[in-house]
Amino acid sequence: MPDIPPTMKAMVLTGHGGLEKLEYQKVPVPTPAAGQVLVHVTATAKNNTDRKAREGLYPTKKGEMTSFQMGGKPTLTFPRIQGADIVGRVVAVGEGVSETRIGERGLLDFNIYANDRTDINLTPDYYGHGADGGYAEYVALPSDQFHHIPNPELEDAELAAMGMCSYQTAYHMLTSANVQTGERVLVTGASGGVGTALIQLCRIIGAIPYALSQQDKAQALLDLGAEAVLDRSNMDTFVDRVKKETDGKPLDAVMDLVGGAMTDKFIDAMIFDMNARSTYPRLSIAGASGGNISEILWTRIYLYQVQIFGVSHGTREEANQLMTWIRDGQLKPVLHGAFKLSDLHKAEEYFVNRGSNYLGKIVIVPDAQWQVHGQPFAVGAGG
């Protein structure tokens, strides 16, 4: 294990705003408290929530600008180190944690849970928001949430790409809607982290995923497990194209990461033949990349008995199941590439302006770890 220095490099968020609020600084290395482990970070996946939290884009009222604060008060305080999906190795332990954990490689269950319940998570918060995260060389984390993933076939950057911010959100979308074996499920935003996780998870539980994406990503999504890929560029004929792919049967459920005007189209694809259904139409929504406000006739919702599930994060039980599937090799990483921690500004710009070749996750690697854990997966200017 490396000697633990008194200071480290970190990308520090100094306030709400643009990229200028992310400052590469030297800060103290944290000390693990009771029940914690100190992790030497090797890779942390980037998530859209990093940008949205920085820009204050989590409103619960029209016109509001705020960070994520489901517990009733803001937990994003400044300075803050972001980065939720952390991979690294344990180099020290706090009181009550066995020293046998030292040396373990692990992946973080990124949630800050309000209590010990394993079946529900009503006030979700997360590392990188309500507490410091992985855009640094070291981070102190709860020992019971830093899961040992020894799998030698997975590089650290690949393991970070399987982080819980995407995979647990995806799984909770499916469990909330009670998706069952054989059901037809639309996956929107299919080329992103949550979308690619949803396709894989549908196949694990026996559901049939239909991806909505740009056609230049179709083959990659089919290879990942999509039954068919529907072109999102022309939504006027969307329902007809669904019918063609499903032999005229309605979708059983929709995993919506888009919102906006498209949500009404998604509902259309579930209700066009209610006599062909054996369950209620279900829509899980965990994103609004296509717009935060949708115009929907409530008569359509209650007459067709459409069940809508808002999804934010997930539960301890779901995280434990996902870690088991990762260890068993049932989930595969979809890693787009890596950037150095000092180049996080470039990574953010790349993510926002990503082109047609983008699929999966971007991972951020501390500069001191770059040659081993980042360079093999370097993207553009991040190299």
List keywords for this structure.
7-stranded mixed sheet; 25% helix; 18 strands; 383 residues; single chain; 23% strand; alpha/beta
Overview of the molecule:
- The mean pLDDT is 94.
- Helix 3 crosses helix 4 and helix 6 packs across helix 7.
- Strands 3, 5, 6, 9, 10, 17 and 18 form a seven-stranded mixed β-sheet that branches. Strands 13-12-11-14-15-16 form a six-stranded parallel β-sheet, with helices on both faces. Strands 2-1-4 form a three-stranded antiparallel β-sheet, with no helix packed on it.
- The chain has helices at residues 48-55, 156-160, 164-176, 193-205, 218-224, 238-245, 262-271, 298-303, 316-327, 344-352, 370-374, and strands spanning 7-13, 22-28, 36-45, 80-81, 85-93, 105-108, 111-112, 125-126, 138-142, 146-148, 184-187, 208-213, 228-231, 253-256, 282-285, 307-310, 335-340, 361-365.
- The protein contains eleven helices and 18 strands.
- The longest helix has 13 residues, at 164-176.
- It is α/β, with parallel strands linked by helices and 383 residues long.
